Amino acid sequence: MNPFEQSGGTGEQVQVHMLCFEGPDAYSRAGGLASRVTGLTEALAEAGFDTHLWYIGDTNLPGHETRRQVHLHRWCQWISRYHPGGVYDGEEGKRWDFASSLPPFLMQEALVPFLREPGRRSLILAEEWQTASAVLHLDWLLRCAGLRHRATIFWNANNMCGFDRIDWARLAEAAVITTVSRYMRHRMWSLGVDPLVIPNGLPPEEFEGTDREAMAEFSRCTRDRVVLGKVARWDPDKRWLLAIDIVGELKRHGWRPLLIARGGVEAHGTEVLARAAAVQLQVVERAQPQPGARGFFESLRDIGDADVVSLRSHLTREPRRVLFRGAAAVLANSGVEPFGLVGLEAMAVEGLACTGGTGEDYAVPGWNALVLQSQDPREFVSSFHRLQTSPAEERALRRRGKLTAKQYAWNEIIRRNLVPCLQLASGSGLGSAESARRRAGPKRARHGEPSFVVRRQSGRA
């Protein structure tokens, strides 16, 4: 029995379809969104939902396969063959194809056969602005088929990218709009949108203990150094410049800091490394000779008196968890953060998370994390010094961080957040065709014209 039925739902059999650009393939990963959709779909499947993920997949993998009970449907593969640079390479062409070709296929092959049987309901979860046009198309097709009342559509915003390309009134008619934090909810109020909040979560493997031998090797590689970790895109919003200034301030106080940094491919990285040179920090750039923990440790050997190690290779799960657990602090200190998954991942392994103060709803200053309120590096140094002089307080903060992270396991998010939102939408008619017609008036009730048309010149979905 799935948790929707266990929690007092209608008893209907629920099939879940998630629509997103990102997914579990290496080609499809660009950030935290891939972690979200992979973790959520696997948790839904584990909970007993028939779960399907539709995403921009690797061209060298099958169009459809089942992995960890999730049905993976790789879309736009014919376009991706011309764009080997990753999921957002050729984004506009993929967005058009995703919006025009996926909804009819999904209807014909999955939704219509499933929903024609009594006692069945579909839940469609769409992520980010690139899927907004697909949602409008799918809503129209469901109404034309007389099945809109049997499907609940959620559209989720993980960040504010592409907001200027969304017709919010039309999207609100087609779907229940959700987001990942109270911060994002408040930001979206200015658009005339009042979303429900369904936060990000963590898969079970994030709570596994770190390997003792790996932790011992990490200690040997970083002996006598105050290690800070930072994993984020080279983006000004991630406050990399503040991280560099923190390292400089710690060094000025004689702490011998070592920042292990993994950025991205963005141009801001050049500015960050220039700031390091300007404050007289020594930077070394390293590419891992092989993936995994062994390659990570090799990249840390013979770094001498370097103050910053800039990793040029992807940091896979195992070394990332070692870094988060072994660092004196993990700088997840974004100035604008819709949710802050890195801070939560650090907490899950009893790392000391240092966050900003925007969308990190899970962070309680001084209780389970350090929370920076300013761009003054002395703020961090003062809080860090206090913890270093009180080891018991630091251990308690780390333990409470892990307890907090467990409240954000995906199975908890499904039970505590997603299921109530689904019940609310199903019981009140939120996102249904009938409620959309009531809100839009009689002119919107006609089915003669699809509402998903994308305006090519204006770029609005």
Descriptive key words:
single chain; 461 residues; alpha/beta; 7-stranded parallel β-sheet; 17 helices; 41% helix; disordered C terminus
Short description:
By secondary structure, the chain is an alpha/beta fold. The protein has 17 helices and 15 strands. 41% of the residues lie in helices and 16% in strands.
Architecture overview:
The chain is of the alpha/beta class. It contains 17 helices and 15 strands. Strands 3-4-2-1-5-6-7-8 form an 8-stranded mixed sheet, sandwiched between helices. Helix 9 packs across helix 14 and helix 11 crosses helix 12 (317-326). The longest helix is centred in the N-terminal third of the chain and has 25 residues, at 91-115. The radius of gyration is 23 Å and the shape is elongated.
Q: Give the DSSP E fraction (strand runs of 2 or more residues).
A: 15-25%
**Secondary structure: number of strands:** 15
Task: Kindly state the percentage of residues in helix.
Answer: 40-55%
Largest sheet: 8 strands, mixed
Would you tell me the structural class of the helices and strands? alpha/beta
Query: Uncertain spans, ≥5 residues at pLDDT below 50?
Result: 432-449, 453-461
* Termini gap: 38 Å
Number of helix segments? 17
Mean pLDDT: 91
